[in-house]
Every structure is written in structure tokens, then in C-alpha cells.
Amino acid sequence: MPLPDRDIRLRIAVPRVGNWHLAGLLSEATGLAPAVAAALVRHGSCRLDGKVIRIPELPLLPGALLVVTYIPTPAAPRPVVRHLDDHLIVVEKPAGVPSQPTREGAENSLVEQVARMTGSSDLHVVHRLDIGVSGLLALARGRKAAADLTRAFAAGSVKKLYLAAPEVTDSGLAWLLASRHKEPLVAPLRWVSRRRQALVANDGQPCRTDVLHAALTQEQWLLLLRLHTGRTHQIRAHLAHVGLPLMGDSKYGAPTHSRRIGLHCIHLSLPHPSLGTIHRFWADPPPDFLDLTGIDWNKESADFWRGKAG
User: Fold this and answer.
1) Longest CA span, the chain
2) Handedness of CA 145, 151, 156, 162 (dihedral sign)
3) Residues 6+ apart with CB under 8 A from 302
4) What angle do CA 180, 181, 186 make, to 5 degrees?
5) Rounded CA gap, 102 and 97, in Å?
6) Contact assessment for residue 237 and residue 198, using Cβ atoms and an 8 Å cutoff
7) 177 CB contacts (<8 Å, ≥6 apart)?
8) Per-residue DSSP letters for 259-288?
9) pLDDT of 8-60, one tens digit each?
10) What single string gives the DSSP state of each residue in 67-101?
11) What is the pLDDT of residues 254-310, one digit of tens each?
């Protein structure tokens, strides 16, 4: 049953008259067909007294507070599967796709799309890319594989390289032109939940981002970064701190906002969770990254940046 193609926003106390179940009350309050209301409940858009409920037939107690927030999302871009076996899946995630299910629902998330595309079950996200970021991402099949990959991340055995396109401020240009841009970015970061943002703070968590190379390409600076720690929004916050907010990332100071930001995970190498052998993957930046940044990308470009990766 298809979901509605319009916003559904509802806040209602369960009436004290009548015997209500969740989908029935939703149907009555919105005019949705019962089957559509049930699909909306299963979608995960209904909260009962603050808790997400996905059971359409759930009996409701009088006075309970039902809150429905549903915003239809366009069909998500499809990830590209680069590796698939019984223990490991590696994909190229498009920008605009959340790595995991969100409050608005599950079916457009990366993990749900990959599950449908590959027929896989028991998938585990062991690292994430922000919704506006594209690139390589690994999924573990089964708890043991997830535990093995988590240990590999903790031990520093996983290598992740990113291509970043910043908006260059005066202070950012000074930083780029100084020899110190070869030094790692190590400002500690603290996550501020109410702002959904990472801020540089003395009491923050330690983290490290290496700038492997910086180059001016067709009037756009590009940076090759290695992520050593995986704090939420780490690259975005670190670059903004030195005057280099990513293109399209208005949350961290870029002058324009875009659903995709100028960040792409171009390389991923990791030990296979079962075999222990190192698997290496490269992913050229996708068309929407090139459209955002205005750069051309060809074999020469790919060879240049791979060479800088070492």
C-alpha cells in the first residue's frame, strides 16, 4: 500500500469515548483510507506518548497523546554495490540518503535499500556518512562480522580518505597557503544535541583529521583528507574551524545551502571480517559533486588524487 503524497501532521489526545486502535484513530482523524493509515503506522511516523509505535492494531488508552509527523520524501538515489559476500557489503552511498533509518521512516535509508537490493538480512552499519555526503561505506552481515569490523575501526586498521571542496574564506586561504596545513587537525569536538552540531571545545572528544594534499583545481580548492577518528560531523567541523566550511554546508558557515555538501569518501580499505585480507576500494566523485564544485573529473584527475593518497 503506497504512503500518502502529502504532509501529515497531527497531535491529538485519544478520545475517552469509543474503543480506538492506532490505525483506526489515524484514519478517522485524517480521512486516510484504513489501509493507508496502517501503512503510515508501519512506516514509523506515529509516536504515542513520545514512543514510536509501528503496530496498526494497537489498542489505545483514553487520554494518550498521539503525534504524527510524516513528510513524503522523493525516491532516493540508489546505492551502487561494489562488493558482496556472506560477511561484507561495500557500497557507494549517494548524497541525500541517510545511512540508517530516520524519524521520518526507514525505506529510503541506505541499509534498507541495500537489504532490498541484495536480499540480505541482519545488516549492521559499523560506520556512517552524513546524509549530504557521498562515497564508500561498509556494511557487516551478521553480528560477528559487525564485531570484527568494529574492532578493526577501533584498532585503526581501516583507512578512509575523503575529497573535500570548501568555501574558502580569507582565514581559510591563509591556512591553506601556510605550511601548517600539512599538520593534522586535532581540535577536540563536542556534540551539541539541541543544535545537531559539533563544536570545537576544550572539553570535547579528541579527534584527528589529516590533510594529505590541497590543490587549486579550476579555481576550486580540493582537499584530500584522511579520517583517523569518526566523530559525528568531524570533517565538517574541523574545516569550518580553520575557515574552510564545505560547499553547500550552511550549518557550518557556508554561504549557500545544498542537500548535498562538498564531501565524498573516495577511498576505503579494511580487513575482511572473515578472511582478514585487506580489501581496497576507490570511488570517483559522482556527477552531483562535480556539479556543486564546478570541476571536471577524468582519468588524469583520478590518477593524480590516487597518487596523492600514497
Assistant:
1) 73
2) positive
3) 282, 284
4) 90
5) 10
6) yes
7) none
8) SS-SEEEEEEEEE-TTT--EEEEE-PPPHH
9) 999 999 999 999 999 999 999 999 999 999 999 988 889 999 888 989 999 99
10) EEEE---PPPPPPEEEEE-SSEEEEEEPTT--SS-
11) 988 888 999 999 999 999 999 999 999 999 999 999 999 999 999 999 999 999 987
The residues, ordered by sequence, that sit 6+ positions from 51 with a Cβ below 8 Å of its Cβ are: none
Beta pairing, strands 278-282 & 189-192: unpaired
Residue that has been written with the C-alpha cell 587537525 in this structure? 185
Under the phi-then-psi rule, with left for phi > 0, alpha for psi from -120 to 50, and beta for the rest, what region is 219? left
Which residues are CB-neighbours of 189 under 8 A, at least 6 positions away? 198, 199, 200, 201, 204, 205, 207, 231, 233, 234, 237, 238
Please say if the pLDDT value at position 104 is more than 60: no
CB 22 within 8 A of CB 48: yes
CB–CB of 279/158 below 8 Å? no
Active site residues: 130
